[in-house]
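#struct-queue
[09:14] JT: dropping the first one here, sequence first, then the structure tokens:
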Amino acid sequence: MVKVQSKQRLGTILQEAKLITPYQVETALKEQKRTPQRRLGEILAEKGWIKQRTADFFAEEWEKVLQQAQEDTPQSLGYYLKEAGLIDDHQLRAILAEQGKGRMWMRIGALAVFKGWLNQTTVDFLLQHLHPDKSGDSPFLKAK
């Protein structure tokens, strides 16, 4: 289990999850110095580098989510992907429908990567922090 550390900076978390690049953080931080009342996530979203919902999730909810995971009460990966704005309702329903029809025997994260909606590093980051017991699992589900 990954221990909840003291609050990490938003830019660090988003970079570790490969949601933004070091250049994007550096650019946003420079802009934030000129306008200190603006939040980093707001600047990143305004530039179109991430969704505002994603910035808000990692800035405001991430520590609580990590605490839940430590207490062995995490939600499903699909739930977190949706809450963080990394996939939308339509995408989640499409993945679940394909799994239900038996066409795709892949886990939610693997299917989101397969479809090009997420990168593997982001899925790995979330699994490592929220479901470390499953982070080494096969991307394929067992046949029903």
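[09:21] JT: and here's the second one, same format:
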Amino acid sequence: MMVSAASHQTGASTPSPATSQAPKHAKGSHEPVMLKEVLACLAPQDGETYVDCTFGAGGYSKAILASADCQVIGIDQDPNAIAAGKTLAQTPEFSGLRLVEGNFKDLDTLIAPQTVDGVVFDLGVSSMQLDQAERGFSFRFDGPLDMRMSQSGPSAADLVNTAEEEDLANIIYQFGEERRSRAVARAIVAARAKAPITRTSELADIVRSVVRRSPSGGIDPATRTFQGLRVYLNAELGALESGLLAAERILNPGGRLVVVSFHSLEDRLVKTFLKSRSGRTGSGQSRYFPDSNLSAQRQPTFSAPSGRSLKPRPEEGNFNPRARSARLRFAFRTEVPAWEDQDAGLAPRLDR
């Protein structure tokens, strides 16, 4: 059973995430993943301030503002998300919303000198970005091979057309967990020797030529390669590590940290961070993460009610396929000052 922030602090009865009230969304809208569970863990209270680190279409921010007379700071590095959110922030119903463009790795400096009562991360690419063919995140639609969340810097096309074969193989293996990464890298290099790879459909077909779909079905063979390139290109794991450290610095005592992740690398990083910061020890760390004794001789900065992640309700997975791989972890900030580490050593070495 989920422990709400309110019951953790006051001993009140614990609301079930299945019965927590959340605003209903029109069919066809972008449904925030595990919204009821996020609200139950965050437990919005009147007069408090929260940070939605991945504003996107504003689903979490709207739900938080509808749950209490509070303030929400919405952060997103995608200028399209910020532009769309400005209209929302101008409505009386959501006057408590303030938008900030930037990467959540700089969370504490983006909102400085403010401290807050809750921080929520909804990691990975948003439904809006996936549904826009011109953003190049998905092979469901043919579009330019882009994948840049901030819409600046090198694109995925730049990466696949210029990186050395060994580097491509390492990126696809470490960040996409694709076992056939070397075969994929060879196929990419062979294809680009004939013509530059510029479209999502081209790259997907190249990957499918060397990675076969499982006889039992499963995900598209191109999925892991696309994930690996996107995670590396946007430095997502390094940003997550920095964002968690920043959240530790800005959360008030009793503040709530909620993280929804969608693949194992993200979830492992969050799990390792919370295990270290809450004083828990044990095995199970990823081979990509260096051994660490960060928690030795230190007081815990977080209290994690459970070492296990929460999974979406089966009915949500049926309604929203994106939710099926989601995992939620949450913790409460203690009164112990933030540790002074500038680098927790959690992100894989290849991250940009």
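[09:30] RK: nice, looked through the second one.
[09:31] RK: Residues 129 and 226 are 14 Å apart (CA to CA).
[09:31] JT: good to know. The chain has 14 helices and seven strands.
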